[in-house]
Amino acid sequence: xxxxxxxxxxxxxxxxxxxxxxxxxxxxxxxxxxxxxxxxxxxxxxxxxxxxxxxxxxxxxxxxxxxxxxxxxxxxxxxxxxxxxxxxxxxxxxxxxxxxxxxxxxxxxxxxxxxxxxxxxxxxxxxxxxxxxxxxxxxxxxxxxxxxxxxxxxxxxxxxxxxxxxxxxxxxxxxxxxxxxxxxxxxxxxxxxxxxxxxxxxxxxxxxxxxxxxxxxxxxxxxxxxxxxxxxxxxxxxxxxxxxxxxxxxxxxxxxxxxxxxxxxxxxxxxxxxxxxxxxxxxxxxxxxxxxxxxxxxxxxxxxxxxxxxxxxxxxxxxxxxxxxxxxxxxxxxxxxxxxxxxxxxxxxxxxxxxxxxxxxxxxxxxxxxxxxxxxxxxxxxxxxxxxxxxx
Length: 392
Hints:
The chain is an all-alpha fold. The protein has helices at residues 14-18, 21-43, 54-96, 98-106, 111-115, 122-147, 162-187, 192-196, 204-213, 219-230, 232-253, 261-289, 291-299, 304-312, 316-341, 355-381, 385-391.
């Protein structure tokens, strides 16, 4: 285990932070959306005194409510996802570096002394939030124009808001760094010997229950269920990926009367990016976590299709559950916006569920998801048994 010049252990390097691309992308999307809408919400207050027509006042109030609603819903959802993703990365890092961390504890380093090095995970949040903030300001002139495309409101000037920079870039970086240290400290509360031996403490009752529950299952079905049970966080990522794809794509096609075409394109792109990122993270981690199992299955003569079904097949129902949840979410959100946010505006039709569009989005999702599974099935086929044996 290398050390720095000041004698502190180098637990995490910049290469490890570079792997946190998922957090960077989620942070980017969250801050990009929130910066545009919150900045617009602040800047639009400067023209409130210039509004004298009742219909313009209604449009103004609708714009303010929309900005708050979009920022709260998208920002809150992506914030929760970022936290879960961060905790997953830290747990995954500790699980894959148990022996190195065990050596440090055996040498006398305290849990906190090791855990405080995990602040560096906050850099991934800094990169994502900072690039999202800068990208939002670059795009803001176009966004402000589309928000007032019919020139109903007086011209709104763009201003830089230092408070937004603090709350959307600086504060999240500090908070996520602190969360990383605290969570790492909790996960390191194990005897050094357990870490060195790579031991996992499972209550005897739980082991007995699992043994009895799986006693009559075929091997491949048992492996599929155990993979799901052991990778519960990845189940969330699979559901979230399909949720994002479903909600964002359907919402983008259903906002013709509520927002500009450009806003629909932005929502769709963010949904597809988030879906692909989390799906890539989840499936890659599943394969890496079961690479030895896959190698042993290949030794015993199981085909690529059987390996793929046992390791990845159990996540397919989770993906479709996520799609259904995303469909319900986007319908409820748009229904609420039409009912409450735009209730006083003229020429806003009642929002109805678009079943045909849902079917189109579902077909595209099935194609995308099955294509990803097919590509990773080929990756399973190319896993070298010799390489795995040499690693051990």
